[in-house]
Amino acid sequence: MKKLVISVLLLILGIVFLLVKTSARAAVHDVTYTADALSSLVLEITPGDTFDFGNLTFNDPVTAPATGTVVSVTTNAANGYTLGVSDGIAGTDSGLVNVADGTTRIPDMTNGTVATPVLWGANSGLGITMFAADINKEAKWGTGTAYDDSNNKYAAIPETAITAHTVTGFNTSTDTSSWAYMIETGVVQKTGAYSGSMTFTATAVLI
Hints:
- By secondary structure, this protein is mostly beta strands.
- It has a single domain, classed as Immunoglobulin-like, CATH 2.60.40.
- It is built from 1 helix and 12 strands, in the order αββββββββββββ.
- The protein has one helix at 2-22, and strands spanning 41-46, 62-75, 81-86, 93-98, 105-107, 118-119, 125-133, 153-154, 162-167, 175-184, 194-195, 199-204.
- The strands form 4 sheets. It has a 4-stranded antiparallel β-sheet, with no helix packed on it.
- The protein is elongated.
- The termini are far apart.
């Protein structure tokens, strides 16, 4: 009888333990996290940021560089970027200045602006063109596909940055555009070595 009572008690305790074990409840609490991805933009010039037009002769236009100036832009901006060009020189002069006297300049091209580039035609001076782009080669730059293509359209480089190329939307990879320059000196251009520069300005479009 004693053994039976002990067995019954053990059975009851086992059932109670099982009920307690199977009826245990889990506590749940969510953790919410937030973050802000900051904008980033990297601009690179390849294959190099220096080139030589070589010897210039009156009425003999020269186009350079043969490799093109390849502007690479990497950005996480939600709405792409704009690319501006400028040379910091006021008026109708280009960035190319006579090394010896420091004042005489080769002028900007006669016709053609960043807003309305033109075929070279009867122009003289210095102009810039975009002949290729991964995304959105604007029709205004002409139908050329190489640095010296006769179908390229050119523009004088302005003093302050004016948007010359626009890429819209978010891009997950580096975007490139390829640029070239044409120069033609006038009959009265002072002889000597000339040197100068221009600037590409990439601006992220966040909104």
